[in-house]
Specification:
Elements lengths: L4 E5 H16 L4 E5 L7 H9 L4 E4 L2 H9 L6 E3 L8 H7 L2 E4 L2 H14 L3 E6 L14 H10 L3 E7 L12 H18 L5 E3 L6 H6 L7 E4 L1 H5 L1 E2 L4 E2 L8 E14 L22 E7 L11 E2 L4 E6 L4 E5 L8 E6 L1 H9 L4 E5 L32
Parallel strand pairs: 1-18, 2-3, 2-9, 3-4, 4-5, 5-6, 6-7, 7-8
Antiparallel strand pairs: 1-12, 10-11, 12-13, 12-17, 13-16, 14-17, 15-16
Helix pairs in contact: 1-2, 4-5, 6-7
């Protein structure tokens, strides 16, 4: 079978989505299923819809357009603000856009006017993670401007945490968002139907604390990989193996662990040496950093990742493996994102039905946010 390939179990994705939707619905929170880590895969999108998500979100216009071209009829949200020159394409395929700049609002208004539609806007607010969003003290002015601009409608407020600086969603910052929603509604005399509190990193807060005005979470990693992004700890009842990377061996030989000769920088910077361990079985697989983040791979028992260059993944195995032998890896979010983007990795979908192994809709007692993320060793690079 073709290698490298990514095997995607759509049934497990649908079951993960259903478990999260069920849990959050009891707290008045809808789920936007985020497809960006899968290159806007229509098959993954359909699995999320089967699991009960109310809308889909992606940060790339190309992915949203692919979803529409595939016949997906669910409401779509553009999760990264468009540039003004992307306004027409945005209005053509998305129901909602996340915005934080007046120029973008004007461009979307003009594009929506040409199409004779009203385009929904979610005003993004900066609450500490220092990525996108207007500062809270400036939100009223831009919200008022949006409410007075033709062909666009202020659908609500949103924020994003834990992506750039790792700021943990908490009762304080989520309470600040709810308070800002209430203030804007009072000042502007309107109702904001959508309050999008964040992403999969919000789950610990969402399960443990009152939701306030937050009624939407944008979930990608938790649905796809079944883990909490703040700790990378698996969530009880969710599948963590919906994605499997399968690679093929091209060489497996006994080699020393220490390089011979003077060394300088390698292809990806100064390599980390593992120290003298004599002779090992060094196995090379036909994939590299162009296709995957090697630090995000979870190898099977008896295999360890030593290094990676552009097109070679260097492994240590217990025995020599014949060329063509397939090795299966789990992936974290970073590895998945890069694999799904690579044109050199084939995608294979499965829809195996399971009964006894279906996850329950219950989520775990999350670790307190004060507990640091689990550290994992970083493999050496050549």
């Amino acid at each position: 079978m073709t290698c490298p390939r990514i095997e995607i179990d759509l049934t497990k994705i649908a079951e993960n989505a259903r478990a999260l939707v069920t849990q959050l619905s009891g707290r008045g929170i809808d789920v936007t299923g985020v497809t960006k880590a899968t290159l806007g895969s229509p098959e993954v999108a359909k699995a999320m819809i089967a699991g009960g998500v109310v809308r889909l979100g992606d940060s790339r216009l190309e992915n949203l357009e692919a979803l529409r071209d595939a016949g997906i009829q669910a409401p779509l949200t553009l999760l990264r603000s468009p540039t003004p020159d992307q306004a027409d394409r945005t209005v053509a395929c998305a129901s909602l856009s996340q915005v934080s700049e007046r120029d973008v609002v004007e461009a979307l208004s003009a594009a929506a006017g040409k199409r004779g539609v009203v385009h929904g806007l979610v005003l993004m607010v900066e609450l500490g993670d220092l990525r996108e969003g207007i500062l809270p003290e400036n939100a009223l002015d831009l919200a008022r401007h949006i409410s007075l601009t033709p062909h666009v409608a202020l659908a609500g407020l949103g924020t994003n945490l834990a992506c750039r600086a790792g700021v943990v969603p908490s009762a304080d910052n989520m309470g600040e968002l709810s308070a800002l929603v209430n203030r804007l509604e009072g000042e502007l005399g309107l109702h904001l139907p959508l309050v999008s509190g964040g992403n999969s990193a919000n789950l610990a807060w969402a399960i443990a604390a009152p939701a306030g005005r937050v009624n939407d979470l944008r979930l990608g990693e938790s649905i796809l990989l079944g883990c909490d992004p703040l700790t990378r700890i698996p969530l009880n009842g969710l599948h963590t193996d919906a994605f499997t990377l399968v690679v093929s061996v091209i060489e497996s030989l006994a080699k020393p662990t220490v390089p011979r000769g003077a060394t300088g920088e390698a292809a990806f910077g100064v390599p980390t040496q593992t120290g003298e361990r004599g002779t090992i079985i060094q196995t090379i697989a036909s994939i590299g950093r162009q296709d995957v983040d090697p630090d995000g791979l979870a190898p099977p028992q008896g295999v360890s990742v030593l290094a990676a260059s552009s097109d070679h993944l260097v492994l240590e195995t217990q025995h020599r493996l014949p060329p063509g032998t397939e090795i299966r890896f789990g992936l974290d979010y970073s590895a998945l994102l890069r694999v799904m983007t690579s044109p050199f990795v084939m995608t294979m979908y499965t829809t195996t039905k399971r009964h006894s192994t279906s996850p329950s809709p219950s989520l775990p007692p999350f670790l307190p946010p004060s507990i640091p993320p689990v550290e994992k060793p970083t493999p050496a690079t050549p």
